[in-house]
Fold each of these.
Amino acid sequence: MSEHELTCGLEIHQQLDTRKLFCDCRTVLVDEEGSNFLRRLRPTQSELGEIDRAALVQAEKKLRFRYQAPPDSSCLVDADEEPPHAANADAMDIVLTFAAMLDARPVDEVHFMRKLVVDGSNTTGFQRTAMIAMDGKLEVNGRMISVPTFCLEEDAARKVDAKAGEVTYRLDRLGIPLIEVATGPELHTPEEVKEAAQRLGSMMRATRRVKRGIGTIREDVNISIPGGARVEIKGVQELRLLPLYVEKEVERQRSLLRIRDILRERDVTRKDAEIRDLSEFFAPCPSKVIAGALKKGGKALGAALPGFAGLLRSPDAKLRLGAEMAQYARAKGVAGIFHSDELPAYGIDQGYVDKLRELMELGPQDAFVLCADEPRRAEAALRAAIGRAYDALGGVPEETRDPLPDGASAYSRPLPGAARMYPETDVPPITVGAERMQRIRENLPELTDVRIARIASEYGIHGQQARQLVHDGWDDLFEEVAKSKELAGAAARTLLSTLPELERQGVDMSKLDEEALREVFSALSAGRFAKEAVPDILALRARGKSVDQAVKELGISMVSSDEATAIVARVVNERETFVREKGKGAVGPLMGVVMSELKGKLDGKAASELLRKEIERLLST
């Protein structure tokens, strides 16, 4: 894929490790539901009298929203029963710090805006967001790309349940401060998109003030190809999948452009589709979907799509307009649709297909689409599917899509426009003074590459280990416990290798928090046991044992020098013949025997030195 075939821009949203943006609630997710209340949300007009198209589509779903308000992580501000408090100054400093790291220009005065959101994720019906800085730059693959905007905004509520007509949110996440940073549309390969996201994420972590873990950072990627349109894949959480989402979106847009060209070759034009009630026709049909809908009082509806045969799903599955139509239909509340390119199937045999084509007077290049559900829902879904089919005449529609686990994406809603933004009247403007920026610039954090090089040099570990410690967020704890170069090696191996291995073995890692790890390393540093015992100590610590209990249970209290010497001498003397035959080459084979008796009781390096001396003593006699 050449750089002329793809244009991408990134938006990254990163939670900050502070109190909430407009109140003093903690920013932790909890299991407690708390009290419940219900709301319905409606879109409002912008200052110019317009209603945002994305908000309008969402409002048409007519959903009811239930909110859970846990008392330790939410308050009246989150419930929109109290005005917002002053914006969190700590959170604003973090965004200004990050912006300064990318040489951005801070605004003179911060003004919060309301961004219309009526999917229920904000109790207010809008999200508060403010521009903090502009015109930053980031080096990616040896060239500079622009980072035009740095915003501070509040995170949305957390969806915990959804059922017919109602969605449930928990307010513990609502109001957590977010950095929102956007690059220019200057990324031209899938790997370049990943590299930009990695560098931005790494620099955010360098502030030491961002949250870590699944759900604390998400990427939105905007993608277009020549002849296509801007499509936003929103909410990618796995960095490693970013290139795959880009590649699959490029494939999707190319297939839609091919469909557009074929439709034009067939002289297909947009028509008002006649939706026909086919309930009586399908009454005896064994299809479980259709029979189930009819039994509940629903209808089976259908419409012709002249000129669309072979494009809803081509034999090689490379053209799949039917899947796009189904996604638009599902947004109206139905489980799906049927179309002629996938039939006979789903209990609809060839006889029904042939009779229906005859009934609709369809030619070889004509297709049809069906939907069975409650009458109004079925008609709305069918019209949405037909509308999406005719949108293919224009190629690629602008839209927001949700990421799927396999790297593909699904239609979510139209791209929002400028009509969803209007001024926030409850939060006063905030001046960004010169003294504030001077203080921030004088205290910028250590950049990631500099930190990696320093840790590797200062603690005598491999550069790749240092890089992984920083990348995985273990660097602070590592520097805290690595009190000598020998202990640094053990700490690096434990954090990067032992912990993942314990997790693969099914150990409950939730019990091995940083405090537990500090306790284990402190005991190791004090000489309570040898570093070889660390995995066993951690495994027992994860089961609720204290370090003292683990040491006692394993029987690995450190032995004295005399005791260790006696054990090594016994091992050597019991194998005198072997030692005299192998000479100094016996050290390697006997080391395993020695460590099986001294594991956890003596450091491996010390044991090796004792073994060498005992073998030399025996050989000299």
Amino acid sequence: MKGILEIYRYTFKYKWTAILVILFNLLFVLFNLLSMALFIPFLQIIFFPEEQVSDIIEPSRTEGFVGFFEYCGEYYNYIMQTMSASDPKGALVFVCISVAISFFLKNLFRYGAIWFQSQLRMSVVRDVRDALFTKAMNLPLSYYTNERKGDLIARMQSDVGEIELAVVAVLELIFREPIAIILYLSALLYWSVNLTMFSLILLPLTALIIAIIGKSLKRTAKQGQEQMGFLYSIMDESLGGIRIIKAFNAIKPITNRFKKENLRHQQLITKAFRKRDLSPPLNETLGAIVMMIIVWYGGSLILEATSESRLTAPHFIAFIIVFTQLLVPIQGVSKSIANLNKAKASQDRINEVLNTDEKINSPENPVPLNELTKGVKYTNVSFKYNNDYVLKDVSFEIPVGKTIALVGESGSGKSTLADLLPRFYDIHKGAITFDDVNIKDASIFELRQQIGIVSQESILFNTTVRENIAFGKPDASEEEIIKAAKIANAHEFILELENGYDTNIGERGNKLSGGQKQRVSIARAVLKNPPILILDEATSALDTESEKLVQDALNNLLKDRTSLVIAHRLSTIQKADNIIVLSKGEIKEQGTHDELIALKGMYYNLSSLQGISA
């Protein structure tokens, strides 16, 4: 029930569109019944023409809502009798035209419902997908170390698609099918109470079967959606690592792995489809059995000439027609319930993301960050990803305008220290301050506006060079973009590209070399012009020539800027104002290059391994 209410809230966010869908559906149901009821005078004219010319009495108006519709029906019959008495063929033409108009209006209203329904369902899909994507952008980096990206994509695609079906199911289950059932049952009861009650023996049995199938369907659907997320992850990993797969001749094992998981997904989804599609044919089969019993029982009533005055042969034929139509909304209910059960599994998976604690939030009343005047200070900072601390009581300062370098073996905590400053993660003990303001007391947006990052992996986007450089400052002028590119030593190679600054660089910038991508990343940081700069091994993946060009660009970028630099190649940080040597999350040494060389400790050993001397 909770899942239905959630989808109901999604749907009625667009109240007037939903109301129009409901209105057109109701008119469709009404004219559908009318188009069948109008066959009764048609049958009477064909099979009992003599009855149309006897006892012609104009009906009298009765009070009440039901009485009004009864009066309309009797008045229509009165018109038929009057016309049949003078011109039977004309009466037949009139009936045919009435039925044709009724069918036209029925289908017109049905299309009107579909017209607005299509807008409504896709609006809901857009909103849910927007909410999921926005949430994904705001979740902390720690979320992505535990969850698969492919699973998140599956929730945005496949699971949201199930919500689309559920929007239609909710409107039909609540506002169309029950009303159709009530109207059809009212007509059947009007013609014969006994025959109608006799025909309803199927419904409790059908409801029980639907409930059993629905519960099983939800379980299978959830397994299928989870498996789809796993498939997306394999696709993402395999396409992203296609170069390595080919280089190691791993196409066959990777393909076999995908085929195995794809087969598992196919089996689960096939199972879900079979369960979902079982209800309609099962209902129809049981309905056909009951139909034959009704034909036998109703035929007996007519042949025995019972006292039921309303159940004439034409009424009985109309009864059979309407009862067959009654099965349609009943089957619609079962289908809608099946879709809702399947959507409930998807809704649960979507809510898992939407209800995930973002953990890293801005305070309600953030302290403003003014221009940096003193610097950044780490005080007794400790941090852990899971159980063990990867940083232990780390303290150091980054004075304004100075460059601080972090060195050490892999896993010593260098990148973690850098990630704590823009609050990609929150520390567990200690504090980091921007001048005298604890960064936890500041707005996350304002804090990150103060920081520029150039990482080891150049993260570029599938758009033009111009848009990548202006990523952090979309309103930048042409002159500002070119100036930033020149500082980053990127202007010359950009002009040599096919369309210059308007050249699309492909997914992740793959149309550019490693050095070119890194210089575009540096130009992006230059244009943002942040007071604090983080360089995370920005030259470690480059060849010697590219490294020189990039290092020159970095030197331009670092001038008079407060910087935190992470480096494996010690040659790139010899001029740093302070070098901090980390090991297993603790500071072992710190000082200038010359001071640390003279100390002949860890830094000296690292320098010797790389052939660097004082």
